[in-house]
Design a protein that fits this description.
single chain; alpha/beta; Nucleotidyltransferase, domain 5; five-stranded mixed sheet
Length: about 150
């Protein structure tokens, strides 16, 4: 009769699990390594140049479906040549949106010196009214219109 394994008995069996007792230490060391080697860039102030429009897209809607909004540098808002308080854009645009059978296109024409918060307020009021087709009248459109005359 032959002796199994040379007469020696195995003291332990092979475990089916991966030892996880040192995983926390390894993760902590990796975290420290990445924290030390990471370089954060500081924000740099850059001058913002607002470009003029380089391309133009024509609107294929009837004039009755277009609402023109003019914004003066002092914040006055004119809707189709009528002075309108800034908070009254939503009801006027909503009614025009309903009257045009949801085909309303809004054209915002603002002076270059109009503060951004005024334009932002108008676009938010238009969004609340459901008028989502908005065009911004730019310097390029004025040049093309002059060239056509």
């Amino acid at each position: 009769m032959a002796i199994e394994h040379g007469g020696f008995k195995r003291k332990s069996k092979i475990a089916n699990e991966i030892p996880t007792s040192s995983m926390a230490d390894i993760a902590f060391l990796l975290l420290i390594f990445f924290m030390i080697t990471t370089v954060f860039r500081k924000e740099q102030q850059r001058p913002v140049e607002f470009p003029d429009a380089e391309a133009m897209q024509t609107v294929d809607e009837r004039r009755s479906n277009i609402m023109n909004i003019w914004v003066e540098p002092d914040g006055q808002v004119f809707i189709n040549d009528q002075l309108t308080p800034p908070g009254q854009v939503t009801p006027i645009a909503r009614q025009a949106y309903i009257d045009t059978d949801r085909r309303l296109v809004v054209s915002i024409r603002g002076d270059r010196d109009v503060p951004y918060n005024v334009i932002n307020q108008i676009t938010e009021e238009l969004r609340d009214a459901g008028a989502l087709r908005v065009n911004f009248y730019t310097d390029l459109e004025q040049r093309v219109t002059r060239a056509r005359r």
